[in-house]
C-alpha cells in the first residue's frame, strides 16, 4: 500500500496574495529570507482540497502509523495520506487548524524551534511570521510536531544548506537542541530544510536513530522507499483540483 505526503508552508486568502511580491519571513532567529510564491496556497484552494479529501474518504496518517508501516510492516488504511506543514507560520493556526479540525483531520508540523517567537504575534498578511510555543500548544489536538532543526534552516547557496556545509557534530548538536523543545513529540522524525541534504546528513540521522526523514521530491512512498528519503509533494498556489486529485490518487 503506497501513500502520498502533501507539503504546505503558507496560506493566504486570494484577495491578500500577490504572487509577484516578495514575502519576507519574521522569525526569532537573526535570519532574513523570503518565502517563494510557489510555497503559498490560497485559502480557497486549501479548503477545497481538504473538502475533497474528506468527501472521498481519505485517511490522514499519524507519524506513528508511518513508523509502524516501515518498522513493523503494518498495513495502512485505504486512501492514506500524510499532511505536513513546514516552518510553523501563523497561517497554519489562522487558516489550516480550524479547517483540519472541522474535518477531524490529523497533521504534522515540522518545527524550526529557534524560529519560534517568545510571545504570540498579531496575524500579518504581508509577511510570514513564525508562531510561538503557546500557539503550538493550542493546536496539539490536530497537529503533532517533529524536527526541522533548531537554527540550521539556512540556505548557504542555491544548491546547499547549512546542514550540508556544517560538520556532523554541529548537525547532531542542532538536532538535539530542537528535540529539547517541550512540544517536539516525534524526536526521531525529520524534514530536510529546503529539501537539501547530502550523504553525511543521512548518516547522522541514522546514527541519531531517526526513523523517518522527509525530502521535497515529488512522488509516492511505498514499502520499498528509504524511510530517511521519503517523498513529499509541494502543493503550490497555481494547482487546480484536477492536478491535486492526481497527486493524492494512487
Account of the 3D structure:
The chain is 29% helix and 19% strand. The protein has 250 residues and is an alpha/beta fold. Strands 1, 5, 6, 7, 9, 10, 11, 12 and 13 form a nine-stranded mixed sheet that branches. Strands 2-4 form a two-stranded parallel ribbon. Helix 1 runs parallel beside helix 3 (91-102). The longest helix has 13 residues, at 43-55. It starts with a strand and ends with a helix. This is Chitin deacetylase. Pfam families: Polysacc_deac_1. It comes from Niallia circulans. Keywords: Signal.
Estimated structural class: alpha/beta
**How many strand segments?**
13
- Level of helix content? 25-40%
Number of helices: 8
- The number of distinct structural domains comes to 1
What CATH calls the topology is TIM Barrel
| Terminus-to-terminus distance | 9 Å
Overall average residue pLDDT: 97
The CATH homologous superfamily is termed Glycoside hydrolase/deacetylase
Query: What's the helix-strand series?
Result: EEEEHEHEHEEHEHHEHEEEH
Coarse morphology: globular
Radius of gyration: 17 Å
Q: Low-confidence stretches at least 5 residues in length (pLDDT < 50)?
A: none
Strand content: 15-25%
Domain NodB homology: 79-250
Protein name: Chitin deacetylase
GO molecular function, one term: hydrolase activity, acting on carbon-nitrogen (but not peptide) bonds
GO biological process, one term: carbohydrate metabolic process
Amino acid at each position: 500500500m503506497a501513500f502520498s505526503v502533501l507539503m504546505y508552508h503558507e496560506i493566504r486568502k486570494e484577495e491578500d496574495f500577490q504572487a509577484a511580491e516578495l514575502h519576507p519571513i519574521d522569525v526569532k532567529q537573526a535570519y532574513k529570507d523570503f518565502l517563494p510564491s510557489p510555497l503559498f496556497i490560497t485559502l480557497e484552494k486549501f479548503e477545497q482540497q481538504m473538502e475533497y479529501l474528506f468527501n472521498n474518504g481519505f485517511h490522514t496518517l499519524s507519524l506513528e502509523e508511518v513508523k509502524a508501516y516501515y518498522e513493523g510492516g503494518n498495513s495502512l488504511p485505504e486512501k492514506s495520506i500524510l499532511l505536513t506543514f513546514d516552518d510553523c507560520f501563523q497561517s497554519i493556526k489562522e487558516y489550516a487548524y480550524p479547517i483540519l479540525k472541522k474535518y477531524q483531520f490529523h497533521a504534522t508540523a515540522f518545527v524550526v524551534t529557534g524560529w519560534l517567537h517568545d510571545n504570540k504575534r498579531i496575524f500579518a498578511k504581508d509577511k510570514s511570521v513564525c508562531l510561538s510555543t503557546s500557539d503550538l500548544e493550542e493546536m496539539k489536538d490536530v497537529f503533532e510536531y517533529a524536527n526541522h532543526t533548531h537554527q540550521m534552516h539556512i540556505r548557504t547557496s542555491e544548491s546547499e544548506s547549512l546542514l550540508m556545509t556544517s560538520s556532523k557534530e554541529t548537525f547532531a548538536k542542532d538536532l538535539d537542541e530542537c528535540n529539547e523543545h517541550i512540544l517536539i513529540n516525534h524526536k526521531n522524525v525529520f524534514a530536510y530544510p529546503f529539501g537539501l541534504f547530502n550523504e553525511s546528513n543521512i548518516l547522522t540521522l541514522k546514527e541519531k536513530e531517526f526513523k523517518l526523514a522527509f525530502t521535497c521530491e515529488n512522488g509516492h512512498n511505498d514499502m520499498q522507499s528509504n524511510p530517511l528519503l521519503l517523498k513529499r509533494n509541494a502543493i503550490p498556489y497555481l494547482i487546480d483540483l484536477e492536478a491535486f486529485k492526481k497527486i493524492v490518487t494512487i
